[in-house]
Amino acid sequence: MSDVTPESSASSNPKLRPLQLMLVDEDPVFRLGLKVWLEQQSDFVVVAEAGTSSEALSGVRSRFSDYQKSLDNPALRKKKQPLQPPIDLVILDLGLGAKDPKATPGLSVCQQIKTDFPQLPVLVLSAQLEPVLQAAAQRMGASAYGTRSMSVR
Fold first, then answer.
1. Quick check: pTM over 0.90?
2. Segment-wise mean pLDDT, segments of 10 residues, the chain, 153 residues
3. 3-state secondary structure the chain
């Protein structure tokens, strides 16, 4: 994933579009708070949300299926402006609704997303900073791992 510097941000360069994000977390209040904060940054727009594993997988597949159909449309291919992918980054909760605090259903969702869409970056969020979980997320294809309590600077 490329670094976004202030010089290359969408807010300082009107030709760059904001990164399109999908938020996956079972807690709608957390999703809303994260969405509001991210969209205040002007470099991000939340284009999809999911509260379960199945919603996440079907949402990603649906958006990329529609994207592929648009690429296959000759009339759209002739346009001078390139078509952009429907999601640039998935932000995925590691626990994803598990009753057991040690369960990690988000890992299997991450693995499935990366199997189907290897170029789609996935940021895995967890309530805890555990090196074992971080390594597991990396093995499943996560591009990055962070905690819900990360400080923002």
1. no
2. 38 70 94 92 92 94 81 67 76 84 84 94 90 93 86 56
3. CCCCCHHHCCCCCCCCCCEEEEEECCCHHHHHHHHHHHHHCCCEEEEEEECCHHHHHHHHHHHHHHHHHHHHCHHHHCCCCCCCCCCCEEEEECCCCCCCCCCCHHHHHHHHHHHHCCCCCEEEEECCCCHHHHHHHHHCCCCEEEECCCCCC
